[in-house]
């Protein structure tokens, strides 16, 4: 009989705890994900990078200044 009372009290405590969490504890809100960006391909190494961080020259996109210079040196003046 004592075990039955103990189980009943544990069940009652569990229900009270769940009710407390349901009505009084607000769920934490995480930060919204960053907005999606358009991706462009580097004309030298074919790596895709966000368009906002691309270095542009003569209608081409590059992942950095070094690749822009290497592309222009390999291709020659247009």
What does the secondary structure layout of this molecule look like, with pairings?
Layout lengths: L1 H23 L14 E3 L6 E3 L4 E3 L2 E3 L2 H11 L3
Antiparallel strand pairs: 1-2, 3-4
From the spread of the alpha carbons, the general shape counts as rod-shaped
Roughly how many Å apart are the termini?
Answer: 94 Å
Question: How many helical stretches?
Answer: 2
Radius of gyration: 30 Å
**Regions with pLDDT < 50 over 5+ consecutive residues?**
none
Described by strand count, sense and barrel closure, the largest sheet is: 2 strands, antiparallel
Structural class: alpha+beta
Number of strands: 4
Name the average pLDDT: 90
For the largest sheet, list the strands in their spatial order: 1-2
Encode the helix/strand succession as letters. HEEEEH
**How much helical structure, as a percent, in the residues?**
40-55%
């Amino acid at each position: 009989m004592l075990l039955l009372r103990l189980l009943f009290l544990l069940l009652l405590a569990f229900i009270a705890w769940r009710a407390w969490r349901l009505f009084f504890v607000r769920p934490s809100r995480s930060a919204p994900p960053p907005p999606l960006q358009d991706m462009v391909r580097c004309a030298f190494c074919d790596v895709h990078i966000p368009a906002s961080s691309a270095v542009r020259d003569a209608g081409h996109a590059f992942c950095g200044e070094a690749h822009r210079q290497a592309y222009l040196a390999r291709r020659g003046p247009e």
